[in-house]
Amino acid sequence: MPTNAYSLNMLMDPKLEDRYLRLEDSRNRLLDELAGLDDDQLNTAPAAGKWSINQHIAHLVLVEDAALANIRYKLQQQDELKDNGFAQAIRAFLMKLALQSGRKYKAPAVVADVPASCHLPELRQQWDQVRFELEDELTSFPQQLLEKGVFKHPMAGYLTISQTLAFIQDHFIHHKRIVQAQKEALVG
After folding, report:
1. Homologous superfamily of domain range 13-187
2. What confidence tens digit (pLDDT) does each residue in 2-39 have?
3. SS3 sequence, 14-46?
4. How far apart are CA 122 and CA 117, in angstroms?
5. Amino acid 110: pLDDT
6. Considering the entire predicted model, what is its pTM?
């Protein structure tokens, strides 16, 4: 049976699909782990000026939503997108190292405004929606743009779609470590 061009274009690039599936697996495992905690535990900040577990989750949702919006905006300007070179790859690598270092960083204002209290099921639903939309973008992502800078990170500059997914994963892991330490402190 012949396959039409439309269905061929609807297959996600295998490398992007692999990164996306790892993102989904990590996210779902963490959310399932947190489902055993009650709202009070999830909304308890470990100290004044520190985020609660739910605030970390809300921040992760905000970051992915902002990244997705930025990618969509850049895809509307395909003619202006530039190839990422070696210097940009170095910046992306340095950002990866920074996130893996365990140091804490002040979140950019656009993704730092998290609610004082939230409910994990609602956060999960919001995150599901962002991930469904991200999956759609990745499925329809043009092959000719794989090496173009499509997301502007505030510190690292323009990232390719693959580098963007790596950033989302590294950022997630950075916050996951904090969340898991907070969970351990709550449940002993």
Report:
1. dinb family like domain (1.20.120.450)
2. 444 444 447 899 999 999 999 999 999 999 999 999 99
3. HHHHHHHHHHHHHHHHHHHHHCCCCHHHHCCCC
4. 11
5. 84
6. 0.90
Rg of the chain over all Cα atoms, to the nearest angstrom:
18
Task: Yes or no: say if 68 and 137 are a contact pair by the CB < 8 Å rule.
Answer: yes
Distance in angstroms (rounded) separating the CA atoms of residues 122 and 104: 26
Q: Do 164 and 14 touch, CB atoms closer than 8 A?
A: no
Six token digits for residue 2: 């012949």
CB distance 149 to 159 below 8 Å: yes
Distant-in-sequence, close-in-space partners of 84: CB < 8 Å, separation ≥ 6: 147, 148, 149, 158, 159, 160, 163
Domain boundaries of the chain, sorted by first residue: 13-187
74-103 confidence digits (pLDDT tens): 999 888 888 888 888 898 898 888 898 888
